[in-house]
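debug: dumping io for the single-chain case to check the tokenizer round-trip. Nothing else runs in this session.
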Amino acid sequence: MADEEKEGKSGGLNPKVLLIGIPLYVVQLIAVYFVTVNFFIDAKNPEDGTEVVNQDELAFADSVVTGKFIFQTGDIIVNPADGGVRLMLINLGFDVPKEEMLTELQEKKPIVNDAIINLIGQKRLHELMNVKMKPKLKEEIKKMMKEKFPDIKISEIYYNKYIIQ
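debug: decoded output
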């Protein structure tokens, strides 16, 4: 007799599904539509369907080819500020947009290496060993290079070697 009562109850549609489930489903559809339109679909001109492109981005994209002109510093050995017997070996690559900038950096390689040695020599060992410090160090080097060589634009800095012993 208990089995017959259970069978009778399981056959109907639960009203909670209609009251909660359907409105929740509609809210999810609206959220997905909003995210898709705002984040995944390219910006289009509403009048004729053509893409809207920022002219500054277009000019920069045409003028910069990543990895074409890379200046290599060579191996630089630095004694950090509190290193004692510990040393750091670093080798950097500077990505520049024009061959003239690459040539200028090659001609001034001793000045570049000296500036890098002075910058890293001021850092403490625990700062240099921190993985989170690496991107910050790149930004500091980029800023220092901009101050020393205002005519040279560095697109990216690459670590070829970053060794602390």
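debug: round-trip ok. Residues 13-52 form one domain.
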